[in-house]
Amino acid sequence: MSDISPEEAARHRAKMEKRKAVQDAEVAEKTVEKGLLLVHTGPGKGKSTAAFGLALRTLGQPDGARVGVVQFIKGAWDSGERRALESFGTRVEWHSMGEGFTWETQDLARDIASARRAWDKAREMMDDPAFGLVILDELNIALRYDYLPLPEVVAALSARREGLHIVVTGRNAKPELIEAADLVTEMGLVKHHFKAGVKAQKGIEF
């Protein structure tokens, strides 16, 4: 490490003192505390992964809040995240209610019925005050294919009870959902190993 002169150290300290004052003032302005509607969308990998990271953050809090997960497209897949989160026992409730993508089922009526069952389960969790976080995994996909009525879903998410955080994942989030959300993160795709012929691997994709 190069030597730092007293002058450089003094300039750095003065700069950081000013920066801290700005940051502290900005933080002090934030006074609202509320349940948030978060949307993870975009073509890049990591939408569900980020949602499950929030699940761990919720479970790490001392208030005992429960986490609910409803998967709208994925079926009863054996995944590392499910096994890990279910190790928290009754604090996590997980429902994989999809039957795969529409090109797999090839049955529109069946897909719509599956999405409706998943949405009904999601509404149960949203109404239960024991849940602090509800993850609606790939709900955006169900909305994209019109498996569920968009106005009904957006209205229910917007009317969520006070203090409930909801995360919606999946590509191609509808503009109406984006408008209703408090936070929208778009995962960009820069490079993906699938393009090089790498198959889905445990610990990375499941």
Spans of at least 5 consecutive residues whose pLDDT stays below 50 are none
The main sheet comes to: 6 strands, parallel
Lateral strand order in the biggest sheet: 3-2-4-5-1-6
Helix content: 40-55%
Radius of gyration based on Cα positions? 21 Å
Tell me the distance between the termini. 42 Å
Quaternary class = single chain
Structural class: alpha/beta
Number of DSSP E strands: 6
Share of β-strand residues? 15-25%
The geometry reads as globular
Count, helices:
8
Rounded mean pLDDT is 92
Element pattern in H and E: HEHEHEHHEHHEHE
What's the topology here?
Layout: H1 6-29, E1 37-41, H2 47-59, E2 66-71, H3 80-86, E3 92-96, H4 102-105, H5 108-127, E4 131-137, H6 139-144, H7 150-158, E5 165-169, H8 175-180, E6 183-186
